[in-house]
Design brief:
This protein is of the alpha+beta class and about 300 residues long. Helix content is about 35%, strand content about 30%. Strands 1, 2, 3, 4, 5, 6, 8 and 12 form an eight-stranded mixed sheet that branches. It has a four-stranded antiparallel sheet with strand order 9-10-7-11. It binds cytidine-5'-monophosphate.
């Protein structure tokens, strides 16, 4: 059976500012996405007519991800078939996970994005990148960025993207947690903290991220570190209080800065170059505070077919 393999990156949010809760249940955000070199690999293979989707999953914690039609990769195949006017979407999807699951790094979105580019090729569809981005936005707020990769500003619920000019590589230490967090639960906690006056909604100043964007243009990790911000961090830490200790320890061990990634519970630490990241990763893993560590480099390319 013919098959196509694709990869897609994990993301971190260099800036994530939460504004208002919208009537549709999403929060208006302004964010700066940054794709990093942790990737999931998705192989799609032609399946017999009428057989539907089957999803196979390997890799750490793969068992906790649904493998039916409620898997986001299966939804991606169905959505693209529908968009292209195909009457069925029979496909076998094999996912090799390296991106931590339910961890704030958009692993499910990466699987959906990789599936979109892979089935477009498998089925020989005449679908443009812009159309693919539209289908991606229907699947989830982070899926369009998984397609795009690099570094980009996001507005709306995160799906309206503009690429950002960034010089050089940023070296990250990714500290994996032995717990999971669901994105809706973390946003709900943020709503609770807002009502209690503990956090405040971001204003609509368009230039709040101007210093971060300037630091990215310069390619100076220390300047980037000084301007990292994640409004969801207090909510993630409220739900998983041990994260405070993880963040403090990373900085004590020499990180330029540490933050919760997206809705967490993964914590990411920016290091002053490759050697510093490798040293910090070794020290972090020795603390016993984290399930594991990864060294990741950004920006990384978006979802792409590799074979
Ligand atoms: O778009 P996605 O399906 O990934 O979002 C999952 C959930 O996360 C939403 O149903 C919503 O509860 C929350 N969310 C939000 N605001 C955003 C993105 C996600 O409240 N901008």
């Amino acid at each position: 059976m013919p098959s196509v393999r694709a990869v897609a990156p994990a993301k971190i949010n260099l800036s994530l500012r939460v504004r208002a809760l919208r009537p549709d249940g999403y929060h208006e955000i302004t964010t700066v996405f940054h794709a990093v070199s942790l990737t999931d690999e998705v192989t799609v293979s032609a399946a017999a007519s009428g057989s539907g989707r089957s999803v196979g999953m390997t890799g750490e914690r793969a068992a906790s991800v649904p493998t039916g039609d409620d898997n986001l990769a299966a939804k991606a195949a169905v959505a693209l078939a529908h968009h292209a006017g195909l009457t069925d979407a029979d496909v076998t999807i094999d996912i090799a996970k390296s991106i931590p699951v339910a961890a704030g790094m958009a692993g499910g979105s990466a699987d959906a994005a990789a599936t979109l580019v892979a089935v477009r090729r498998l089925w020989g569809l005449d679908v443009t990148d812009a159309e693919l981005a539209d289908v991606a936005a229907q699947l989830g707020s982070d899926v369009p960025f998984s397609l795009m990769g690099g570094t980009a500003r996001g507005i709306g619920r995160g799906e309206v993207l503009t690429p950002v000019l960034a010089h050089g590589d940023l070296h990250w230490v990714v500290a994996l947690s032995d717990t999971e967090l669901s994105t809706p639960a973390v946003y709900a906690e943020w709503d609770r903290l807002l009502a209690a006056g503990v956090v405040h909604a971001a204003g609509d100043a368009a230039d709040a991220d101007a210093p971060l964007l300037a630091a990215l243009r310069q390619g100076d990790p220390s300047e980037v570190a000084a301007h990292l911000v994640n409004d969801l961090e207090p909510a993630a830490v409220a739900l998983r209080p041990h994260l405070r200790g993880v963040l403090d320890t990373g900085v004590e061990l020499g990180a330029l800065a540490g933050m919760v990634s997206g809705s967490g519970p993964t914590c990411v630490f920016l290091a002053d170059g490759r050697e510093a990241a490798i040293a910090l990763a070794a020290e972090m893993s020795g603390t016993g505070l984290v399930r594991g560590v990864r060294h990741a480099v950004g920006p990384a390319p978006g979802a792409r077919v590799v074979a």
